[in-house]
Structure formats: C-alpha cells, structure tokens
Amino acid sequence: MYNFTFHRPTTVRQAAGLLARNPEAKLLAGGHSLLPVMKLRLANPSALIDLSLVEGLSGVEQKGRSIVIGAMTRHADAANSPVLQQVLPGLASVPASIGDPQVRNRGTIGGSIANNDPNADYPAACLGLGATIITNKRRIAADDFFTGMFSTALEEGEIIAKVSFPIAKKAAYEKFKHPASGFALVGVFVSKRGADIRVAVTGAGASGVFRVKSFEEALKKRFAAKSLEGMTIPASGMNSDIHASAEYRAHLVGVLARRALVKATA
Question: Which of 43, 137, 138, 194 is the 20 to 30 Å CA partner of 181?
C-alpha cells in the first residue's frame, strides 16, 4: 500500500466534511473491495474515511410498509435479523448467500451497492424490489441509482445512509455461485408487490445489474414459473469469461428466474 491518512468520524456530517476537504479520499465500509485493490497498488487514495464509528448507520427496522437497512449493517446481521426474516424473507436470503462467514461478518450493504460490482448480490435485491437509496443529500430510486459496471448515481461528497425496501407480497432470490468466491455467476431476484412485478439480474450483464422487462410482462398475467416456460433472453450484452459464456449466462437467467418464482410462490 501507499501512505494515506486514516480518519474515524462519528457522524455523517463529519464524514461528509472530511470527504469535501479530501477530494482523493475514499470511504471505508467493510473494506472487501477497496483494501485488496490498495494492497495491489491499483488504488492510491490520499485518505481513508472509516465509517464504522458513525452513529445511526446500522440496523434493520420496519417502518410502515418498508424495511429500512442502515448502510453499515453487516451482511450477517441483516441475514439474521428476526424482522427481516419474518417480514421479507426473500430479502434476508440475499445477504445470507454472500461469500463466506468472513465476508458476511465484515461486508456491508452500503459498501456493496456503492461499489456496484457486476457480480454482487445486493444490487439485484435493490432493483428487484424497487428500493430507495437514501444518502446524506437525497433519495435515489434503485432504477436510477445503478448506472453501469462499478458505476452509480452517487455524486462527490454523497454518502449512503440507509436503504428502504418496499415489503413485497412475494419475493425470492436464486443464484448460481462461483464455487470459490461465492459471487453470482448469475443471480435473479423476483418480486410481486400489487401490480408492480420485477425481475432483476446480477452477474450476467456486461453493464451490471438489469431488469428483464419481457419476463415482467409475462408474469403480469400470472406470477408463476410456468409463465416463463420456453422464454430466454438474448446472449448479446452478457458477460463471457473463463467461468461461463454469454450464451450460458443467458440460459441461466431463465432457469434461475423460474427457480426463484417457485420459491416466491411456495
């Protein structure tokens, strides 16, 4: 690593102030994405602003018809939340499927969606439930938040404070894991909340997480796995690497969507 200054603010306002005064600084949440690239000297921030002591950024609670998760909530804490397991179990299964125990006990929801890794799980949940990302400056709909691979709508000095998920009547997540990393080669989140039906895919798209509108239209007639029988998506625009071809990933999207629907309607 290169030399850097380490800060540990205790309020969001202090963190935002440090970020404003240090344009080349980076926010540190769980550190699973940032620290490895720093160790490889692929990133050289002038300062790290550790958010672990910032008050009010952790916890899971139900507010009306929504589940609100603080940005610094660890994956393990979200997965084991009694509130989340009871009210929205389809969402609880997302952090439970991430990586390994070490990752789940350090990684955070805010860090995951701010990084927007194309193979990350939480972006699919955000897009698949129509979540709202709440920052220190504004509220951003998930449909507008994820703008491309490792790219989001976050502006300079903007810090994610929490994420609000509407409570869906039916929801489930299904993923095909990379055997070593636990990342999603393909992951599909499905949900039904009144007339709002969503199918969101991670791990497959070359530009990151995306919705499958053709599947959503088919599911408006009947929210069931049979509604997607014989349906696929084009391989164009899919990731292709040593782990899976674009065609294989496109095929998996349909398979996993149907599996997720079986879980959601069980």
Answer: 43
Pick from 35, 51, 67: which residue ends a domain?
51
As for how many domains the chain has, the answer is 2
Interior/surface letters 43-65, b for 16+ CB within 10 angstroms, e for the rest: bebebbbebeebeebbebeeeee
Query: What token pair was written down for 126?
Result: 């955000």
Distance CA 120, CA 105 (A): 16
pLDDT per residue as tens digits for the range 138-194 = 999 999 999 999 999 999 999 999 999 999 999 999 999 988 888 899 999 999 999
Residue at 61 is within a domain: no
Contacts of 33 (CB under 8 A, 6+ apart): 111, 115, 117
CB 141 within 8 A of CB 130: yes
Q: Which residue has the tokens 């791990």?
A: 203
Domain assignment of residue 127, yes or no: no
